[in-house]
Structure formats: structure tokens, C-alpha cells
Amino acid sequence: MGDAGRNSSFYTVSDLYRLLPLGKNAIYKLVNQEDFPKIKFGRKVIIPRDWFDEWVRSTVLKNHSTEEGHKLNMKEKHTIMFDKDRQRWFVIDEGYGLHCGECFSLYIGDKPVLCRLEFDSDWYVIMDGVRFYLRTQDKYLIAI
After folding, report:
1. Which domains occur in the chain, in start order?
2. How would you classify the pairing of strands 44-48 and 77-83?
3. Residues 31-66: pLDDT tens digits?
4. Which of 53, 77, 102, 132 has a CA-to-CA distance to 64 between 20 and 30 Å?
5. Where are the alpha helices (DSSP H) in 20-143?
6. Sequence-distant (≥ 6) Cβ neighbours of residue 28 within 8 angstroms
7. Digit-coded pLDDT (tens) for 118-127
8. pTM
9. Which residues face 96 on adjacent strands?
């Protein structure tokens, strides 16, 4: 991730490309949407981190439905645990299975940190461009 994404309050379009599971064309389409939070200086675009995080919570996550078709309450905390038989993470109180690429807030202490669930040979989340490997024997507190 570029300096702007790690050391300042702003993302660049390049930072979003590294942060999101989207191709370059999709990132540019996203950034050019009228409701996407950005500041333009001619052709240069910067995205305030706070604006982006709020946009993800209000636009992306509020439209996230479960497999059963009902909505999870995003303001409530949920616990996830790994189901060894199904080889995936589940929201315990909802019975909802999480998928690769899903975004949610993982609580680190009392602080929710926006992240994205991924899998290669092990399950991990990406937060601020850093991989955090999940231990399948542990439970985690999240907000979806």
C-alpha cells in the first residue's frame, strides 16, 4: 500500500486497488460513481479514509443479505466461529456462513476494525492492507 494509505488520512485510487478485491476497471467505475466519497483535484482523486469507511458501512454492508434472505443487524455485535465439518466461518447467533471477500468489522479489544475475509491455504482477514490470520479454534467478535 502506498504511503497515503498507511500514513495519512487518505487513500489513493492505487491504494483502493490493493485494498479491494476488484480489478482496475471496477475500481475506476466505483470511484467515478456520483455517491462515492472522494475529493477531486483536476484528474487527481483522493479518498478520505473516514469517508470511505462510512461509505462501506452505509452503502455496501447495509445491503448485505444472508443466505436465508434476511438482514443481519449491522449495529449489533456477533460472534463467529469456524465449523470444521463445513470448513467455513459462521455467525453463531444467526447460523450465517461467511464467504471469501465479505467485509465486516473485527473487534480488536473494544475497537472495530474494517476488514475483508479471505482464504488461501488458511483463513485470514485483510485490514489496512495487512493480513491477520484467523485461528480456527478461536471465536471472534464482529459487526456485520
Report:
1. 3-61 (3.90.105), 64-143 (2.40.10.390)
2. unpaired
3. 888 888 999 988 889 999 888 888 877 766 555 444
4. 132
5. 24-31, 49-55
6. 13
7. 888 899 998 8
8. 0.52
9. 91
